[in-house]
Structures are given as structure tokens and as C-alpha cells.
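TL;DR need C-alpha cells for one chain.
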Amino acid sequence: LQVFDEEGKDVTPHPLFHSDPNTVVPRQGKLLASSAYFGATGSVFLSSFSMHQPSGANASLEQKRSCLLTSYNFSDVQVRQEEIKEELTKADLDRRVDLYLTETETIWMLDMPSVVVSVESEDAARVLERNRIYVDICTNRPGSDRFVEKMMQTVNGAAKNKEVQCDKIIMEDKGMMVTSWDLYDSFHVSEIEPTSKAEGSRTPTGKSSKPHTTKEHNQTMSVSSDRGSTTSTMILESAVLGRIHEEEECHSEAILTSENFQQDLFFMERILMENIFQPKLAAYRQFPVLTDPNVTSDTNGTVAAVKEAKQEKHDKEKKDKEEQKEAFIDPSILSGLNKTLEEIVPPRLERLWSYVCDLTNGHSVSSMVWSKVNPDLLAVGYGAFDFKEQKKGLACCWSLKNPMWPERIFQCEHGVTALDFSMASPNLLAVGMYNGSVAIYDVRSCNDAALLDSSESSNKHTGPVWQLRWVEQDRGATGDGKKERLISISADGRITEWLIQKRLDCTDLMKIKRTESEKKKLPGEKERKSEALISQQAAGMCFDFHPKDTNFYLAGTEEGHIHQCSCSCNEPFLKTYRGHKGPVYKVAWNPFSTDMFLSCSADWSIILWHQDSQTPILTFSSATAFVHDVMWSPKSAFIFAAANESRVEIWDLSVSTLNPVISRFANPRVKFTSVLFAKNTNCLLVGDSKGEVSVFELQNLAAPNSNKV
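>> reply
TL;DR here they are.
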């Protein structure tokens, strides 16, 4: 086809693609495209119109005919398809048509061939052979002329910046103490070495500066030979000295790590501690403090001061006698007056020392207990009472022979809340923790691992173990003597007995149930509905067994109630003492009047009870602070100590029931947490929230003659 305009010019569009007339390529043209568009019916009809491009001079003519045929047949296809669509019946539409889906050819976007081949594959033998040939080539390459080293320049890879977050680097300042003689020796050694080298180098020069006579020349040669022998001798001596120094270092290291040396250091440390703390320890044991006259000037000054004080006292007595004679006063009356003045001196707490070290600093003292057989051995538990301030706990055994460092240190994963020594096996220390677990340690062993642990027990506590005690009970009809039981009370509302076998297991003595508070009904007031309880069990806080009959015990709860319970009775509570408005932190039977007991609470009060009366006898409240601990004196039925957050108090019921006889205030930002009387001396131990156990001497506190209230 050709297209002409009005003026007769040929404006036929030229094709963009010019095919090569020498190649014969089958062409489907628009007919195949239209068949793809119109579906399978059109493709069957148009299959007979497929065209092939001819070759030779008639290519253009055939191309024009194919274009005409294509345009003509395209309209024909449309007409025929419309006719076919109109001829379709309902039966044809309902007829089942089967479609078959086949997998297309896979297109590989990324192909990374493997560098290893399985031994069982077909190419395994070929790969092994290639590897063997490569190994042979690498072996024969060194020294061979068939291989040439060649260098080439490659493109450097793009640099990449990579940042890694790490923990903060903590900087520490450290120093050491150096004496003046250490500095002098180090400086003197550094001065001697260059001086000796300089003298050795100047010796031949000085000899050679003389006139060169034959005799002097011979002397110079002899001096040079002597110098060479001296140098070799010095080298040998330095080598021998270095070897001796190494042997001495090895020998000294062996001495330092030997068991005998460690034992000697242990005894030496105790001797030094007893020398340092001798006046304090003598005051603790109520021994007279001895002074050595042949000591330093400081002690001499002290002795002189004592003599001067005695002289002043003697002069004062002499003056008083002269005044007596002048005033005609009877000497017996004056002596009685002096005794009265001595009795008027108020009692006080004199601080002796503190059990504290770097490990315990910052931990709160939760409990203290003396060893049952060694009155000089003290066990202290370190933990935290607040849930938000929990950290790892410690159980330390302190001795009076070394107040600066504990004898045994037991690291615990959780805060220690209670501990107690066994009576039947004094080397066993039971420890209760904040997570509810109980562990038993052997204080004779240097290993800090627990002998038994309740981690594998299925019935272990689920709350903090607030108190733990070994209790001796009569066997009764089962046998002679007494047996020892380990009892604990927890915040999960259970009082539990622990069975020590191959592992630590437990059985419940009692589950503390909540009791409704008895509220008096006002006149004209309607009855209130009972409040729904979140939990049927009340959290247990403390307990104490009766000193004479261990079948009975008291249990304090978080509700503020104190229950009297029995190990041989089916009833949960024998009696309930209601008087506190907050959690009861401690209950303690009087060791002399066994029908009386004390209780302290978070309601700022201490209450004295009689076991036959459910009404408080006396209530002591001297400060607006939690009372964490209370303990009776082991020497008097009238004296007890109490620790509240702000101060520690000593009460003497024979003197006053309104105010304590002694009060000792805590340091700023420090709270007292526990108290403990010494067994054989007039001393009191007080623990605080900073990990310090202070030892105080009770001075001028006269114990009453009677042990009954």
C-alpha cells in the first residue's frame, strides 16, 4: 500500500524494523496476538492464517499482502467470535470444562553453587581426583620454574563504618603506700648502674693516655685482658644472681601458698586483733583493763593522768574531812551520802566496737543469733525488708577474736531474712531467705556451698521466710530424750516443719487463716456486711515456742493478731490476742516468768501480755516509729531491749513503765533493725540498715534481786 497526499506526494510511513532478507524467520504477526486476546476459539480458527516471511525480491510484496490479509482477517475473527458467542446455548454454558495447570519454566534469580560435594554423589570421585591434583601442584610448586608469580591491581572494596555498643568502661583510681627508704633504694639502684658502666668505659682510655713505651704498652695489653676477663666474670655473676633470684621467687611463692603459712598468718592476725582490741574485749568480758607501764608515751600520759586524778581525789577527800571537822558532821552520814551520789549516776550504753567490713557495708542486718556451744561465735544475716530494694544476701559468722573480718562468709542468691544455729549439731546453720527458700550450711567447712537446699522441694514456701528456729521437743512414748525440729514461718501463711534427710523437705504444722476483726456495734448502727477476703490465709511474721512446754507456741500475723497454737491439738487456734493495729514483727516469752510475753508491731507500740488474758496488761510507746525487734534480758525478768527505726531502748519495769531507762539514737539516715543480748556479759548487740552490728556495754544498770514479775 502507498499513501499519497493531495499534491501527489508519497507519504507512506516507513517501517521502524527492517528484517534481514537473507534469514527466514517464522512470523505470527497480529493474528497470534488477536488469538491470545480472543481466547481458545479464536486461536483454533486463526491457526490456518499463520504467515511466513518470504525471501528474495518479492519480500516487500508478500509483506504488503500479509498486512492486507491480517487486517481483513482480524475483522473476520471478530465477527466469527461474536457469532460463536451468540450461538452458545444454556447446555453449552452448563457443560463441564476441564482445565489443566502445568508448571512453567523455573527462573533462577540467584544461583550459588556449593563448594562441597557429598561422598555418595556421582561427582565424588572426580572431585577427589581434582583435589589430589591440586595438592600435588601445591607441593611441587616451591623451587619449580614452571610457576611464575604475577601481580595485578584490583578494585578496593568500599569502606564500611560499623558501631558496636558495649558496657560502660568504669575507671578506678588506685594508689599504694611507698616508704621513704623504698624511694631511696629504687633511686640509688638506677644511679649505680650507669655509673658502673661509665667507669668501665673510662678505664682503657685513661691507660692509653700515657706515653707509648714498650713497657707501658705491655701493661696496657695486660689491663685489656684483665678487663675482658672481668666483663665475662660480671656476666656470669649476673646470670647466677638472676637464677638465684628466680629460685627465691618460686620458693617465696611456695611459702606464701602453703597451708602452714596460712595457718600461722591466721593465728598472727588473731593475736594482733586481740592486742588492738584488748581494752574493749576486757570491758566486754567484764575484766579489769590492765595498763602496761613500759609502753609508749601516750600510755605513760594516760597513766600520769590517772595518777593525777587519784591525787585530786585524795586532796578532795582531805579537804572534805577538814570541812567536816569545822561543821561537826558525822563521817558515817557523809559516806552514806557518797554512796547515794554513786547510785544516782544514770545508766548508759557505752559503744565498744562494730562488726562491719566491705562485704557487709550497704546490706541491712535482718537477724542475729549466738552459737549454742560457742558464746564467742555470732551469726548475722544480711538482707532487705523492702521488695523494691532486694539484692543478694549474706550470712556471716563473726568471732570475738577478730572483730574486723568474719570467720565464714556464705553468699546467698537472695536476701537473708532469718537464721539459727542447731543445738544437736552446733556446726549446722539454717538460713531462711526472701524468696521462700531454706538452706543449711556447715560452718566448719570453708566451702560456702549449702549442704541442703529447699529448691527441689515441691512444698517449699512461696513467700519470705520471716523467722526460722531449731526447737527441741520431747519424744514422749516414741523414745527417750529429745528430738530437734526445724520450724519456719512465712508470708504465705504457713508454719512448716522441715525434714532433714537426703534432701530438704517439709510438712505444714498449720495454715494461718484470716480472722474477722471484732468491731463493737454502735447504738443505732445497722449490721455491716462481711468484707470479701482476697486470700483466706494470713501472712505469718513471727513465732516463739513456750520455754517450758514446747507443744505450745505463739504466732504473730500481718493482721496484727497473735494466735496461741498447739502442736498436738486439731484446732487451729487455742486463743487469739488482739491489741495491735499493724503487723506483729516479734513475740518473745519471758524466760523467768513463763506466763508473760512481749510483742512489738508496726503500730509504734510494744505490748506486755499474760497468757491467760486476751487484754493487754501494759502498752509501751515512746516514739512514732516502727518497732522492728524486742528481746528479754537473759539476766532479769524486768529488763528488755527494743529496736525501732530511730533509736534503741532499754526498759526496766522495776524502775518505770512509762519511759525507757536508756535510749540511744541512731545516726542520720540509719535505722536500727534488730537487737540481741550477750549471753554471759552485760552487753547488747544492735544491727542497723547499713550492715553494721554495734556492740554496747550496759553501764550502771543494776539488775533487780527478784526474777519474778
